[in-house]
Write a structure and sequence with these properties.
By secondary structure, the protein is an alpha/beta fold. Helix content is 49%, strand content 13%. It has helices at 18-27, 48-52, 80-87, 106-113, 149-160, 171-182, 184-201, 206-226, 231-238, 244-254, 257-279; strands at residues 11-14, 37-40, 56-58, 70-73, 96-99, 123-127, 137-143, 163-167. The radius of gyration is 22 Å and the shape is elongated.
Length: 280
């Protein structure tokens, strides 16, 4: 429930898809009411669930945008520049701009919103991940040097509504966050798929294999979170010389599983850099 002594956020979500919806779910009723929020999306069906929460909706930027203190850009990088430029006429001096667009540097957004030689500097870039949908996400954030501590605190509260928050130093670090935690749930889901299928191939039912795989991954993650020991030590404790775990890890080692995962993270990081070059 929202604290009556707190000033509610006046938010605009430019792009009303899944990630914006997850953020709104964590905020509406806690740090703002539905009428404090404006959702803009070119696809009217995407706005239906927002309107049901009392949120103001629009299919294109308009004067109402000028009254919203915080703008959250949650659109695809391919359309980020044109979207920012469409919103620019309604920008105010005290607007805080937060971008969720992968690969688009905060410096580019700053230049698009500013004037020649005078970029708009109240820009924060972030990368949440899909566990935000259930309040278990983690978000990396970076701010331009001119962003003050009050605006940083607002961004932290906003993204903290759907999980943990970590600050990093620059755009390059946000691209690394994108590669690790932004894309990371897909790596985990792929591993889960393979683990479940492995159990089925060894005679377990699909239901049994799924339950065992999910509980194993959840338990191992919780153990790693709560333990002071690094994952390498926890792995060694499960692995008896000549035992079943050692046999399995030997197969993964032959495929150079750790290096493959690291290459995957590097590929995602490079793609983020490519997006920056292509669209900014």
């Amino acid at each position: 429930m929202m604290n009556p002594h707190e000033t509610p956020f006046k938010l605009a979500f430019i792009g009303a898809g899944n990630m914006a919806s997850a953020l709104a779910a964590g905020l509406i009723g806690k740090r703002c009411g539905g009428p404090d929020v404006l959702a803009i999306d070119i696809h009217p069906p995407a706005l239906q669930s927002w309107a049901q929460q009392g949120v103001h909706t629009a299919t294109e930027p308009g004067p109402a945008l000028a009254g919203q203190r915080i703008w959250v850009f949650a659109v695809k990088p391919q359309v980020m520049k044109e979207t920012v430029l469409a919103c620019k006429p309604y920008l105010q001096d005290d607007t805080l701009v937060i971008s969720v667009a992968a690969g688009i540097p905060a410096t580019a957004i700053s230049e698009w919103l500013g004037q020649p030689g005078a970029p708009f500097t109240r820009v924060i870039r972030c990368m949440p991940n899909t566990p935000a949908f259930i309040g278990c996400g983690i978000t990396g954030l970076m701010a331009l040097d001119q962003v003050d501590e009050a605006d940083k605190a607002i961004a932290k509260q906003l993204l903290g509504s759907v999980g943990e928050v970590i600050w990093v130093q620059d755009d390059a670090a946000i691209d690394a966050v994108t590669a690790l935690s932004g894309s990371g749930p897909a790596y985990v889901f792929l591993f889960l798929e393979a683990l479940i299928q492995g159990g089925i191939q060894q005679g377990l039912s699909p239901e049994q294999s799924r339950q065992l795989a999910l509980a194993t991954l959840n338990g191992a993650t919780q153990l790693a979170t709560l333990s002071p020991e690094p994952p390498s030590v926890l792995r060694e404790r499960v692995t008896s010389k000549g035992g079943t775990t050692a046999a399995a890890l030997n197969v993964l080692g032959q495929g150079d599983f750790p290096a493959l995962v690291q290459k995957a993270v590097a590929a995602a990081r490079e793609r983020a850099a490519e997006l920056a070059r292509e669209f900014s």
